[in-house]
Design brief:
Elements (H helix, E strand, L loop, with lengths): L14 H4 L6 H10 L2 E4 L4 E4 L2 H9 L3 E2 L15 H6 L8 H15 L4 H18 L5 H20 L7 H9 L8 H23 L6 H8 L11 H30 L1 H9 L4 H11 L5 E6 L3 E3 L2 E3 L4 E5 H4 L34 H17 L9 E5 L8 E5 L6
The structure holds protoporphyrin IX containing FE.
The site of protoporphyrin IX containing FE has 27 residues, from helix 5, helix 11 and helix 15.
Length: about 400
């Protein structure tokens, strides 16, 4: 097993610190054992860790994705990134959500996973050729740049140089911890991406089958900017960015830790799809999401008051024995079951198949290359985040550790 570097080896102080802890799963197990829903007074959050409670929270219409008092974070409201945020299916409820979601589902569900897999694989092959396999920059490009390039292809956007950097700047607007400078860059990025995507939607011959299906699904081409079609096309890039990087990175971590699994994939490449699926359960990239009570709601016998926030621990639900037999073990041949890490209910991820196909294509190519997952110099920490678990890799000489 390759050694890991980590923020701390002690028990995480709370479920937000757990996200980037070296091994948060014993802590999640303890939370599941405590009660169906637990109050953290210091964080002022309710915590749902059991699979059954997570599902009940996500299915509850009175628990919404944004607080009623602040539908768009104050720090970005009325500015370019805030205008996009206000129109995202992910950040809305009611009619605004239903219309955008229906259109996105119509578009994304028609995308052929096998084609996405091949496209990701082709991009990965040409990237791997350009790097030494003991260069951590290779893993960064594979995890962050390639997935958004595949999405650009699907949308019909000729991937401009710097697409990864622009998406990275935009996603800063989604984090409450971003600095004013990062938010300024996020507004610039929102404006640039909107201009490119707007041009695409105005020119009926320039778009792609995906855009056409989204338009036919109910998000009309509009003359004005900002608009819901352009915002939600931009949202495909931001929804992909960190989460897919985490899935790819956590796949690499799994192969570094489980030599037997790496050997099996090398011998049986078609197992890559089952592998990525089990990584998404065993070491999911999105650890939590939030819901806000728009009125008092009873959850598992506990009254959650209007305005309260529930932290929904998707990663804890992914290891719940009540749903997954032998949940703490990586089982490549596990029977397929809905994955908590992609959410559930009315906001469940409509990009799950695409995300898994991208990650499978990239990791398959890495397995087929000379990449040495067992290299003892390969180390990782986790990038700072309150909800996503994304490794940052380095190759460290033995005497430097
Ligand atoms: C490994 C990668 C991914 C993971 C783990 C992931 C996970 C999630 C989760 C947990 C949610 C629900 C959040 C909530 O209910 O609070 C979500 C929503 C969403 N995801 Fe993904 N996602 C991934 C990749 C993608 C990709 C590649 C796309 C599009 C191409 C996408 C598009 C969306 C959209 C549009 C929503 C909002 C749906 C709605 O609110 O109705 N995701 N995703």
């Amino acid at each position: 097993m390759a050694p890991t570097t980590c923020i701390t080896q002690t028990v995480p102080a709370d479920p937000l610190q757990a996200v980037i802890h070296a091994d948060p799963f014993p802590y999640y197990a303890a939370l599941r054992a405590r009660a169906p829903i637990v109050r953290d007074e210091a964080l002022k959050l309710w915590i749902a860790a059991r699979a059954h409670t997570v599902r009940a929270v996500l299915d509850n219409e009175r628990l919404t994705v944004r607080p009623t008092s602040e539908p768009v974070p104050r720090a970005i409201a009325g500015q370019p990134a805030g205008e996009v945020f206000a129109r995202l299916a992910r950040m809305n409820e009611g009619a605004g959500h239903r219309i955008a979601r229906q259109a996105l589902v119509a578009g994304l569900s028609a995308v052929d996973g096998a084609t996405v897999f091949q496209s990701a694989r082709k991009h990965a092959a040409s990237t791997i050729e350009r790097f030494n396999t003991d260069d951590a920059a290779l893993l960064d490009v594979l995890a962050f740049a390639l997935p958004v390039r595949v999405i650009a292809e699907l949308v019909g956007l000729s991937a401009p140089n710097g697409l990864e950097a622009t998406v990275r700047q935009f996603v800063a607007c989604l984090s409450p911890t971003s600095t004013p400078e990062a938010l300024r860059d996020a507004h610039d990025a929102a404006s640039r991406l909107q201009t490119q995507l707007y041009a695409l939607t105005r020119n009926a011959t320039a778009g792609s089958a995906l855009v056409e299906r989204i338009v036919a699904g109910g998000l009309a081409r509009e003359i004005e900017l900002p608009n819901a079609l352009v915002s939600n096309l931009l949202g495909l890039f931001s929804q992909t960015f960190d989460a897919t990087a985490g899935l790819i990175g956590n796949g690499v971590v799994t192969l570094a830790r489980h030599a037997n699994v790496a050997a099996r994939l090398a011998a049986s490449p078609s197992d890559i799809h089952a592998f990525i699926r089990e990584v998404a359960r065993f070491d999911p990239p999105v650890h939590n999401t939030r819901r806000f009570a728009r009125e008092t709601v009873c959850i598992e016998g506990v009254a959650v008051q209007s305005g309260d926030c529930v932290l929904v621990l998707l990663a804890a639900a992914s290891r719940d024995e009540a749903v997954f037999e032998d949940a703490e073990r990586f089982v490549l041949d596990r029977e397929a079951h809905p994955l908590p890490g992609f959410g559930a209910g009315r906001h469940a991820c409509p990009g799950e198949t695409i995300a898994q196909a991208i990650a499978a294509g990239i990791v398959a190519e890495l397995v087929a290359s000379e990449f040495d997952f067992a290299n003892p110099a390969l180390r990782w920490t986790y990038r700072p985040s309150l909800n996503s678990r994304i490794p940052k890799f380095a190759f460290v000489e033995r005497n430097a550790s």
